[in-house]
C-alpha cells in the first residue's frame, strides 16, 4: 500500500517499534509520523508539546488563539488540533478541516467545539475532566475567605491610598454552610477542603452520588440556595444549566450570602447578579467565567459586575496553575497520541469509547482496521461481510448518537489484501473515515 495516502482516509504504521512497558506487544505508530501535523493554540503546556514531538509529529505551536480567518486557513492541513477555551471550533471552521481526525481540549469544558458536527466528520474530541480539579477547588476556598473578610475591597482601597480598618460584616468561615451545585470531581474536592476548615457542606446534583465526609445531599437546588451561606457552582454548560441562576434563584438565596461561579459563564444571569450585589441582597460574589470572554490578554474587558461591592473578578484562571496545566498536557496529549496511533477512543467526548488490547510483538501479519460510520442499521453487517474471508482476531464496536465506531484486528497473508479490505469498507455509503494501522 502506498505510504502517501492521506491519514484522513488511512493511517499506515510501522512494524519495527515495540511497547517499552511490555516487550511482548507491538506499538502502532504512523509509518511516516513526520507527515502528521498537529496545531496547538492558546499556550498549552510544554509537556504536551514534548509528548507530541516525541511521537514524531510536526507540531505548530502558538501562544494565543487565532482569528477565525487564520484558524480556517491553518486547520485545512492538520490532523489534530489542541485548544483551550478561547478557540471556537464551530461547524463553519470544522467544515474546512480536510484532514482533521482529532481535537484535544486542554481544559474541562468542550462547549467551544461543535461536538455533533465533529463526530459527523469522524473527528474525535478529547478533554481533561480531572487534571485541574484541585486547582479550581483551591481557588474557590481562597475566594470564600476573601469574600467573608471583604479583602478584595480592602486591598483596592489600600492601593488607592485609603486606610479603612473595619470588622462589620466580616466573618470567619468556620461554622458556615457551603452549598455546592454540581458534585463532580471539583465539587467533591471542594467539599473535603471546606470541611477541613470547619464548614458544613450541602450539595445538589442531578445524579445520585455518594456523599463524601460529612457532606449532605439536598433534594433540590432551591434547598441549597435557601440554606447555604456560600453557593459555589460547578456544572457543565448544557441547555438545562443555561442561566440556571437568575433573578428568581438569587432572590431565594439567604440575604447576606455569597455566590461563586467557576463553572461556565452562561450559568448565571449577569444582569440579575449585578442587581443583587448593588441592592445588598448578596454580600459578595466571585466570578471567574463570563458569557463572552476576550480572545487575548490586555485591556477591553467589560462587564456589569465591574465595581460591584465585594465582588472578585478573575480572568478564567480556575485551572491556571503550573501543576494543572502540566497534568492536562500529559492527559490530553496522551489521548491524542493513542487515538492517532492505535485508534483508542477511551475518554472521548463525542465518540463511543472503544479499545483493543495490544497486538503481540511476534505477530507481524495483523493490521488494525479503524472505522467511523453513520449509526444506521446494516453497516456493521456490511463490514463483517467484508472481513468474513479473513481471520479477525478481535473486534469491538459501539455507537454514540448518530455515529458508530468500529475496531478490528485482522490477520492477512498478503499485503495486497489490505488494499482490498480498505477499498471495500470505504465504498460503503455510510462510511465516514476508515484507517488501517500496522
Explain how this protein is built.
The protein has helices at 46-54, 68-75, 91-94, 115-120, 133-148, 151-159, 185-196, 221-227, 247-252, 270-279, 322-342, 379-387, 416-426, and strands at residues 13-14, 25-26, 29-30, 37-40, 58-61, 80-83, 102-105, 124-126, 177-181, 200-204, 216-217, 230-233, 257-261, 282-287, 311-313, 359-360, 366-374, 391-400, 403-411, 431-437. It is α/β, with parallel strands linked by helices and 438 residues long. The chain has two domains: 13-130 and 323-437, 3-Layer(aba) Sandwich (Rossmann fold); 133-313, 3-Layer(aba) Sandwich (Rossmann fold), CATH 3.40.50. Mean pLDDT is 91; it is low at 1-21. Helix 1 runs parallel beside helix 11 (322-342) and helix 5 (133-148) crosses helix 7 (185-196). It is built from 13 helices and 20 strands.
CATH-wise, what's the superfamily of the largest domain? Answer: NAD(P)-binding Rossmann-like Domain
Oligomer: single chain
SS element count, helices: 13
- Residues in β-strands, percent: 15-25%
